[in-house]
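We treat protein structure as text, and this decision shapes the records that our systems exchange. We quote a single record here, exactly as it is kept in our systems:
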Amino acid sequence: MKPYQADIGEIFREFGTSEQGLSHADVIERLEKFGYNELPEMDRVPAWKRFLAQFHNSLIYVLLASSVLTALLQDWLDTGIILGVVVINAIVGFAQEGKAEKALESIRKMVKYEATVVRGGLIKNVDSRELVPGDVVILKSGQRATADIRLFESHSLKMEEAILTGESVPVEKHTQPLEGDMLPGDQKNMVFSGTYATFGRGKGVVVATGANTQLGQISTLLTDISKSTTPLLQKIEDFSKKLSFFILATSILFGVFSWYLHRFGLQDILVNIIGIIVAAIPEGLPAIITITLALGVQQMAQNKAIVRKLPAVETLGSVTDICSDKTGTLTKNEMTVLEVITDAETISFDGSGYDIKGAVTGNIDHPAVRDAFLIFDQCNDAQIRFESDQTILNGDPTELALKVMVLKAGIHLPALERLATIPFESAHKYMAVKVKDGDSIKLLVKGAPEKILALSNLSEESKAKLSAVFNQKASNGYRLIAAAWKELMDQSRTLPEGEVANLIFAGIACIIDPPRPEAAEAIAKCHQAGITIKMITGDHIETAGAIAKSLGLKNPESKIDGQSLEKLTDEEWKKVAMEYNVFARTTPWHKLKLVEALQSQQRIVAMTGDGVNDAPALKKADIGVAMGIKGTQVTKDVADIILTDDNFVTISNAVRLGRGIFDNIRKAIIFILPTNAAEALSILVALVVGGTLPISAPQILWINMVTAVTLAISLAFEPAEENVMKRPPRKPAKPILDAYLVWRIFFVGAVLAAIVYTLFYYAIFTYNSLELGRTIAVNALVAGELFYLLNCKHIRHNVFSRDFFNNKHVFRAIGTLVLLQIAFTYLPVFQKIFRTVPLEMYHFALVSAGGLLLFLIVELEKFIVIRAFRIGK
């Protein structure tokens, strides 16, 4: 008999469990028997395929074509060198990308899924990998099922099963056994791994885990982090193709031009063409950018922001608006009830957080107070357990605060039998339970004060008076939860929403959730960076305004609530989205409308969310940010970034790091391209004047290889600049290189080419030795790059600052490069391959002076062009 055909008693017997769940010993035994609850990993791309992929680049194709030309000319040494450099470049790229992949894999493993289980009669959260057949699992709205489960309780539970059935409409579940053979989509008493709870809650027994689940049988993996390329990498690939075409065309054009001017032979023309191609191609650039992105993502993970989709790293630098939840993100999420107000009494509490110790003032024995306490305690899913010398807390922070309040008052209420539940949803803003209290049946309700008032049987005059009290308390920053109740005649285990009406108002709890001290500073930094912060909360509008003011949000007095938002037209939404920064009593639909209204005005929006219904807004936003602690699994799955600490400061830091990563990519580009420009210019000038090439093709490849491997990669570790959060957001349509940076590339290339040419011809005229001249030219070019690397630490500012030594990788790279150049110059094997000769110390002094001169010229250029003419600010 299949699980959906059996009644729950048979399921309990078959899987050796009960409503109290498994014991710890049972779990250990079954883990050994069934293994961890995880799907088999997809087959990885073989290493040999990943290695061959390193050659799949238009720039590499051009180099390979050049090697074919040298082979046709029977210049086997140059052929071997070109092919050797291409292979070495591939090996370096393969090794570095392997490290990057491992880093991203470790980040993937940080995204964990938890399951709420009953074990030994206690509710606890466990890693979903540890679920075993027979476990009793509790599901609630927003959670993702991570095993196949046979339900024995369902309170309006609806599951989104599109992953298995293709059905986009959530399916309502029940607990009754079914007859006959049925497909998964018709098994209404089953919940399948990979599906989401969109409404209600339920409880059931795990009947299959891992590969034995329906999902496992079709071998679909959902938890993998996106491996998609990024717009930046696509732009670089497109740039590479255009650059390859340009280099080929230019090489051929100048080859023909040199023949026309100087009547060079075919072999000389081909050698010159190969020289230009080899000089101009930045073969290491794509790998450098990929590595920089991967290292940046790893750094962000270390700073508690897990990037699930690489394009988010680029988008972070363009964010203009951050729409942030209040509770737990901008506030501490340490709820403390300070007052309970009823018609008869006001009870005051001392203490903070979840400490059950504290003074209580007021008559807690008054019947009205007891009614309020009963509701706050029983209409509540949080659990507090005391084990030896520690207190175990499990549940929503607000509900835990209410439980602590009751215990602080010294009241120990027995758990009443719960017959039915309407879970809290942002759509109706209340939770209701139907309980048996002795011989009577009671409906206990708690929720947003205005909602509870609307459902109560109070007169309009009484409602108005209470609303004034609510406003006064909310303006002081209190979060308010109201309680109400009534007696019922129906003893069934159902609770229609229509029953929640004509309630007896019991009172309100005034809860304080203090702002995070560090959040105000982070908000100020975002404002300085040209980013607008919009606070979104389900709290009362006056509470929201008070918190916004304490956090330093702009225009905290400009606030609007969900009731007013409901009445807006699309055009009015656009105006409100720009003018208001505080949004209270919002629904997930309001979040989506806010994102759309901002995006319609070319704003780049980051939106935070934690509930299942926040998923559409997160998907629509340019960057969806999910809460790692309180966030539901569905929001984590659609998010671009997950915050492991639910802290707004982490969002601010992520923006700073994202901007820094993009800066480092630009630094790598403006470092690599001037070198290629200098090499190409040196050859082009030689062709025009009919002179000797100052650097041979193999020597150029050596320079490109060693500088990319050592110097360029070190820029990936460059910390974000101090002023990175003092700039306005980058416009997404803006090219990677603006006009100033293009100027910088050609300017540095021209200066470096002039220095190399000067030293080359100095050596030729002084020593009459081509080998010596080229050896000096190569070392001059490398020395120029070495000093120019220091210029690139700051693109638009001078490098003489206290953070000059803040990147140890730069100086390690410089040391490594010096050793490589010594080997290049003095080791016989390199002298034979690259046709170099030993240099005197005097020669090294000359090339060092050339590098230092380039460094000083670039720093002077920064001052003149940027400071004097205000270009590139």
Summary: The first strand starts at residue 114 and ends at 119. Confidence is low (pLDDT under 50) at residues 219-229.
